[in-house]
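Journal club prep, notes for RB
We'll compare a predicted complex against what the paper describes. Inputs for the zinc ion case:
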Amino acid sequence: MQKFVQYAPTEIVFGQDAQSDTGKKVKKWGGSRVLIVFGGGSVVRSGLLKQVEDTLIEEGIVYEEFGGVHPNPLMGYAQKGVEEALAFDADFILAVGGGSAIDTAKAIAIGTANSNATLEEIWEKQFIPKKSLPVGVVLTIAAAGSETSDSCVLTNEKTKKKGGLGTDLNRPKFAIMNPELTYTLPKYQLTCGIVDIMMHTLDRYFTPADIEKNQMTDRIAEEVLQTVIENGQKALKDQTDYDCMSELMWCGSLSHNGLTGLGKPREFAVHKLGHVLSATFDVAHGASLSAMWGAWARYVMMSKPDCFAQYARKVWDVEEKDDIDAALQGIERTVAYFASLGMPVNIPDMELPDQQGKVGVLSDEALEALADQATLGDTIKISTLQPLDKKDVLAIYKMANKKEQ
Ligand code: NZQ
Ligand code: ZN
């Protein structure tokens, strides 16, 4: 195992009616003037926002609302939130929603505590923040894992760059997780979430690390994946099954708090490929990942067939003795699973408009632009498993651009 530090300080309050503890938790973590950050209105329609606000009132905490956050949240909107938080003199930022609301809350917290710098300067590493305001979360979707992660992902609408800021300052103080709050999810968001949870573990699993030397981490990862696969299928049949939604919600946090990648190099290539698609076409995060995973896996598989074979045998019960054949079966089973959820497994499945306004297969120019963006004009390589330059990334986008791969 490589040296590692595991820091997952978020206090988890899990279970039915967990949201009734929100006011108490905000108080415990020092909040007295709270900016509540939420999305396009699902928490208003479900009545959750009102329930949360009532718990704040009970504790004598004052608050202001900052709603309207879009999926794939924009930096400019988070900057607007910073101005609101400063004007309100907020000392605590509370997200009620999913990854987009949480990431906007995290960005507002950092921007407010460092009001001498803009979010753009912070994301471009021209200013390194040393402090933030405390953030709490009431989670409504099992997906991004932002409720415990150190990451905050924004899209800069000026540069069309989508990227994360990773710092322990981003770890929320608490996360309220009531699986019942996910019952109202549209099916597409449910399945995007299932893919994203799996991908946070998959994007940590395939690394150059010796598979004999990281057994505990790999076994945790394999169990998380099997639990998500099994309960993802059950959730499609009945997304009001409390036990099943509980498993997904808990896996969502465990998958992205660092646990499933300890002692290994950091990978996350598929996320980088997907972020470029989301920034360019505003596709849902989970869909951008399922569309790219198969092409990426087939392209890099020969760099570490034993790792792909181990994955196939442990997660998918593949019995094939030959590593390469086993690895290929594991890839096919994964892609078939994403398809069974109704998720895109290639670019044409996403029905994106290209620059000529055609829908489906992207033009060579569009793919070139994606590869350029992913590698910052061929100045960086992505992936540790097999360092991928622009030529490699373009080849992967081209593979993903075919219906049959
Ligand atoms: O905006 P509202 O009206 O709330 O509707 C949302 C939104 O349309 C809806 N929704 C959420 N919970 C609901 C619900 N609708 C009905 N009932 C509920 N209970 O679902 C839609 C998607 O919400 P969003 O917050 O965007 O989902 P998700 O949690 O998947 O977050 C995605 C964002 O997180 C980033 C992604 O890139 C993307 O921007 N990520 C953040 C990470 C992190 N900070 O650690 C890691 C991830 O890899 C990811 O990059
Ligand atoms: Zn993700």
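Talking point for the session: Residues 144, 196, 199-200, 271, 285 surround zinc ion (ligand 2) (CB under 6 Å).
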